[in-house]
Write a structure and sequence with these properties.
By secondary structure, the chain is mainly β. It has two helices and eight strands.
């Protein structure tokens, strides 16, 4: 590729907007299941309900039913998605109902488990950080992730790294001499 082509790719790459993928509303729940004091090691069917109170009514959203969940040495993990509106700044409780796969009767695992917030969620609930709170010049290179390479093109001789497997087209006009 000639100099004009490399410069066109470099300029186009530097001008691409940075966007983040949307955050999922799903969360992972890991649990331990015992029967008669012994760890369960058999597939189970679960029902998960989200509530606004430790007891009584107040279900938020719909019940999530998962069948044939692998339970080994009493340990299991599932992905739950109650939707974006399910969590705010109020306390939530998870109700879990379980049965061995293939059986008809469910057993409620009481009491409901409080859903504890992650540190990031606490920061967001308290107001987080807005663009207006970040003053110009306060985010320096040492505060960026190692994969971010800021670059200002000061002349046609600036070195620019182009990510692997990225195809960018930019028409070039002008002289390379």
């Amino acid at each position: 590729m000639n100099f004009a082509g490399l410069m066109a790719v470099a300029l186009a790459t530097a001008a691409l907007p940075l966007t983040a993928a949307p955050v999922s509303t799903a969360c992972t729940y890991q649990g331990s299941l015992k029967k008669a004091g012994q760890p369960v090691s058999a597939p189970q069917d679960f029902q998960f309900g989200l509530y606004s109170a430790a007891t009584g009514s107040g279900q938020i959203g719909t019940t999530i039913s998962l069948t044939n969940v692998t339970v080994a040495n009493g340990q299991f993990h599932v992905n739950l998605d109650f939707g974006a509106a399910a969590f705010g700044t109020e306390q939530r409780y998870l109700e879990i109902i379980v049965r061995p796969t293939g059986e008809t009767a469910y057993t409620s695992l009481a009491p409901r488990a409080p859903v504890m917030p992650a540190p990031v969620a606490l920061a967001v609930a308290s107001g987080g950080v807005s663009n207006a709170a970040i003053q110009n010049g306060t985010i320096t290179r040492d505060k960026l992730a190692p994969t971010v390479t800021p670059k200002v093109l000061t002349s046609l001789t600036s070195d620019v790294s182009v990510p692997v497997n990225r195809t960018v087209f930019l028409p070039f006009s002008g002289s390379t001499s």
